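The records we work with from here on pair a chain with its fold. These numbers are not coordinates but entries in a learned vocabulary of local backbone shapes. To see the layout at work, look at the sequence and tokens printed below.

. . .
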Amino acid sequence: MNRIYHPRSFVSLLLTGFIFVALPLVVALGSAIQILDGLVQQSAVAVFRSAGRVDNCRKVAELLNREERSARLFLVLGETEHLEDVTARHREIEELLGQFAGLNPGSELIGLLEQLQNKERLLIEKLTDLSGTATDRKSRQEKAVTGYSEIGSLVEELERSSNGLMIKEVDALKERVQSNKNALTWQISGLIGFSVLLVVLFMSLINKPVSQLDRGIERLGEGDFSTPIVVSGPRDLETIGEKLDWLRKRLNTLDREKVRMLAHISHELKTPLSSIKEGAGLLKDGLVGSLSDQQIEVVGILDNNCSKLQKLIQNILDFNMAQAKEVPLDFQDVRIDALVADVTEDHRNAMLARNIHLKTELLPVQVNGNPQQLKTVLDNLLANAVKFTPDDGEIGIIMRRKGQMLRLLVEDSGPGISEEDRAQIFLPFFQGQQKNRSVMKGSGLGLAISKEYIQNSGGTLRLLPSEQGACFEVVMPCSRDEAP
């Protein structure tokens, strides 16, 4: 199977996952730093411009005041040094207004600066114009000096416009901060979401091989040696999976050898046991001579225990053969309701003797399976129910159908199965601690054999939780030819 990524080890997968998950967060951090740096630069430029405007407005106002004072002194005293001071202040104002315009290109302040510059130039021209009579010059210069009030109004308007422009720049900066904040929020949210997706992806990549190992070990613990153990993921975990699969194959081989050995031993035990039982039967029937009462009692005990031992050996044979799958299964369509009726008839005398009430809800349903094995399953379940149900109790056999699946319940009103026994109830030779009135102890193979037989037919057998007694559920597929 081709894969995009082939991790060499579990550690490299973890390291790769950490890098991929951390990468979007690093990108988000870098983007945030870049946005903050841009805002800082823009804020610095805005502060520099605002401070420059305020400083230039203050300097222009000071220079115009000094220029006006020198101009008025010139008018009063007539000294040329005051006129020279006016001319010097004019040059400083010209230079300062040029710098002011250069710092605010394209703004609304340019028009005010041009008006201020033109009016100041015109005023200076009138003050420095020495043509005409002394009276005309005096009158012209006095009229020019009155223009400083208009220039002062322009300076005040320039200050107001500068403050308004500063407020607009602050508002624009706030809008950009909010816009960048929203963009950064969406960006970080998207990157965090992407990181979460990567976390989920790498968690699945990490969890998948671990889960496969866990399921493989569980199946080995449950005795399932037929299902291959396949682990896909880092190569070191795949190697562990291959070793587990080798262990599965080895255990499967050993288990089959064990089953064959037990089957062979059980089969070999049947022959001498049959001879012992036949001999006990001849003695019991008196064919080899009459026996005393004590001898008859001993022979009866011998015959009874031979029967129990034969049944135990047969159960061992059936269980091992079912596990080994060495007996060809004669599958055919079987009416489960008719099979239930046959099995209940076999146990009718035992139920009548103890006044046990049998409640049945049967359906005319067919399943495909081995008739003898299915009858053995029903017989084991009903025998257990009769054994553990108290006198005057009740047993229920209920059939339900859902689609192509048959659900059969066998319930009893006995003491039930303890919590510690529930997990082991289907293990071979397991016998719980339930109290029952039967003096005959079972082999502990009935439920194990029943589960194997039901699985042979493609179904499941399990113990359901119940408030009173035990409730076993058999689920099997119905015959294909039978309509739901």
In short: Confidence is low (pLDDT under 50) at residues 435-440. DSSP finds twelve helices and seven strands in the chain. Residues 235-324 form a domain with the Helix Hairpins fold (CATH 1.10.287.130). The longest strand covers residues 394-402.
